[in-house]
């Protein structure tokens, strides 16, 4: 039986994709209370999912590759600008791992596996000297539990072990040796969509954009 030396072979998976990258969104994506919503990622931010052989055995047949952490932290920069009216204020933001779309005055998930509240930077019209006023946000990363995104449409789901096994299979089918693959640290990446919805309100009436 083959044996290998490294029992803690480290692997990495990145999942980085944005619904928009800092440019103004289409007016069709906004209700009349929302002027603009943008989502971006500054610099090179690799959302690492570290994989490790959790088996104490050195037998290739006993390899048990699993994620080290259960949550992926995605550092994003969201911005929401409300419409130009003193009566309209920022209400809330919501982040989706996957895609969403505007239906009427609401934003609904279309192919999203996880969603949570998110506080972006926002700008509202005051009507006083200077006009617009902004409040900073984006203090925390978008925290995505891996258990919530493991199953679903192939274009959205992230199953790190499945991705690792695909790379191993490609390596072996291409004439490579399984043992050599397992002995080396591996790095591979995938792209997945992330969407931001922003809501502005006039009194009790809240309307979204993305």
First-to-last CA distance: 55 Å
Mean pLDDT: 83
* Fraction of residues in helix: under 10%
**If strands are numbered along the chain, what order do they take across the biggest sheet?**
4-3-1-12
Number of helices: 2
How does the major sheet shape up? 4 strands, mixed
Judged by helices, strands and strand pairing, the structural class is mainly beta
Low-confidence stretches: 1-23
In total, how many beta strands? 14
Instruction: State the shape.
Output: elongated
SSE series? EEEEEEEEEEEHHEEE
Gyration radius (Cα, Å) is: 22 Å
Please indicate the percent range of residues in DSSP E strands (runs of 2 or more).
35-45%
List the helices and strands and how they pair.
Elements: E1 11-15, E2 34-40, E3 48-53, E4 65-67, E5 71-74, E6 77-82, E7 89-103, E8 106-117, E9 121-125, E10 132-135, E11 142-145, H1 160-173, H2 178-183, E12 186-190, E13 194-202, E14 205-209
Parallel strand pairs: 1-12, 6-9
Antiparallel strand pairs: 1-3, 2-6, 3-4, 5-11, 7-8, 7-13, 9-10, 13-14
Structure description:
The protein has 210 residues and is mainly beta. Helices cover 10% and strands 43% of the residues. It has a 4-stranded mixed β-sheet with strand order 4-3-1-12, covered by helices on one side. The chain has a 4-stranded mixed β-sheet with strand order 2-6-9-10, with no helix packed on it. Strands 8-7-13-14 form a 4-stranded antiparallel β-sheet, with no helix packed on it.
